[in-house]
Amino acid sequence: MKIVLLGKSFVIARKILEISPSIKLIVIDNSEYLKDDSNNTKNMSKFISYVTGADLVAEVAPKLIVDKDIVGVIPAFERTVTDANLLAKKLNLSRIGDIGAEIFRDKYKLREFCEKIGINQPPYKLIHNVEELRNYFSGKPLIYKPISLAGSVGVVKISEESTIDSEYSFTEAEMKRENSSELLGIAEEYVPGSEFSCEYVVESGNVVFRNITKKFKFDNGYFVESGHLVPGIVNGIAQHEIFESLDKIVSEAQIGTAILHSEWIVTHDNQPVLVEIAGRRPGDRIVDLISLAYGFDFLWEYCLTMIGENTSYQGISLKFAEQKYFEISSGEVISINGIENFANIKFELDVHEGDIIPEVKSSEDRRGYFILSNNDFFALEANVRKANKLLTISTKS
């Protein structure tokens, strides 16, 4: 049995090979990512480099079509969703579908699609240059973001006209840094409220798993997530409307087989407003939180979904699980105290004395997190507050 992994993801590769070492992985990605030797690649049996989706179809697909042992194509990242759909279509394997592959990679196309089918979302405008952004600003706060990047990269809030030029320049610089093919942004009316994500698994057009995740953000204006809670506690009417909206999107977009990771704002009067949708597994450690909360290996079940094997998703959560990122002041690290307190807590920390810690402006700027779970929500929150005080990282400007 062989699986094509479109995008060099060690998280997915490790999961597959831990559970089923006999599976052969074919890893396909752009050459710039295949050069990265920061992780062990000895168990990844074959690497194939390509440049564009056209190359994938014209040069790579014909070589794979003859291999009857290939059972699935898994998109590892948001940037590979469209190409994974192209390749799976050529190989006649499970895939998200052409509409989903297009609209879930372009925030403007998603807005247009959802407007046509009546999904609740904020007013928006495609932005080509700073003059258009300036003309669209009416004095009300706006969110401005790239149309194709993930991980909160380049997302800013504009509340005053005097900041438009600097915020536009920041977003444009982030798009260039990420080698975005189009330097286009989308401006949207800012909607205040609580933030949630919703994870859907769809098998052959049928929704087989739903989850709500509560999202927390760093309070610095850059919309980077500081933590997640699974399952998220949300008003029942709002949850029903989120599910109803996503069911409609799945149907109208003719979604085949995929994970959908959508983000929502729930307003003070419990109205859910769509932020965006991605056609790939959720980021950060939401996958781990779902596994902890529901009592099954979510990532492995997703892999089974994409290769057409029988799955056993559990629809009722057993407990709460929360991820919390460490909040570290920007500056040079002069001391780190309390790591020993996390001996029995799942955590990661990538900080050393002398490191320069930047302000958190994108997901990449975060340096570590911990995860806790508990059957009781209030006990979990108390434990998270306690754990948050166990580590002290001192910095100087």
UniProtKB/TrEMBL annotation:
Keywords: ATP-binding, Ligase, Nucleotide-binding. It comes from the Bacteria. Pfam families: ATP-grasp_4. Residues 111-307 form the ATP-grasp domain. Coiled coil: none annotated. GO terms for molecular function: ATP binding; ligase activity; metal ion binding. Transmembrane segments: none annotated. InterPro entries: ATP-dep_AA_Ligase, ATP-grasp, ATP_grasp_subdomain_1. The keyword ATP-binding applies. SUPFAM superfamilies: Glutathione synthetase ATP-binding domain-like (SSF56059). The keyword Ligase applies. PANTHER family: ATP-GRASP ENZYME FSQD (PTHR43585:SF2), FUMIPYRROLE BIOSYNTHESIS PROTEIN C (PTHR43585). This is ATP-grasp domain-containing protein. It comes from Agrilactobacillus composti DSM 18527 = JCM 14202.
